[in-house]
Amino acid sequence: MDVKEFVSDTLRQIIESIKDARAAITTQGRRVARSIGAVLLIALNQGCGPSADERYDVGYDDGYAVGYNTTCKIRATMIDGDFDNEAYSSGYRDGYADGERECREKD
User: Fold this and answer.
1) Which helix (H) or strand (E) holds 4?
2) For residue 24, how many C-alpha atoms fall within 13 Å in the half-sphere facing its CB?
3) Torsion angles phi and psi, residue 57, rounded to 5
4) Is there a single domain that holds both residue 57 and residue 94?
């Protein structure tokens, strides 16, 4: 093998190594980007909307107000009314019972 062939083969090997490294980095980068994207999507999704505890609290407050005001015949009460939300509905029932009880015990 003469010097020209040796240099040519060596350059070809270097170029192939660079291409392989570039492909590996690109693949690795895509994986990292997808992972980061998935984590961000999950984090953003968790941040969307109130938690179940918050919906329960809103439902409890609404139920308490309605239970108290209805039982004591005070007035109609505007509420959120998100009865499709299980946490809200549960809080509403608990709050209504407590509001009703509070009105009856005040006398």
Assistant:
1) helix 3-47
2) 6
3) -60, -40
4) yes
Q: Which residues, at least 6 apart from 92, have a Cβ–Cβ distance to it below 8 Å? A: 59, 60, 62, 63, 66, 79, 83
Residue written as token pair 């609290």: 57
64 and 94, same domain (yes or no): yes
Query: Quick one: tokens of 22?
Result: 């570039």
Same domain, 65 and 96: yes
37 and 66 share one domain: no
Q: What is the pLDDT along the chain (107 residues), one digit of tens a residue?
A: 677 787 788 888 888 888 877 777 777 777 877 777 777 777 666 666 788 899 999 999 999 999 999 999 998 889 999 999 999 999 999 999 999 999 999 86
Per residue, what are the HEC states of 83-103? CCCHHHHHHHHHHHHHHHHHH
Q: Which residue has the tokens 């998935």?
A: 38
Reduced to 3 states (helix: H, G, I; strand: E, B; else coil), residue 9 is helix
What is the token pair recorded at 16?
């192939």
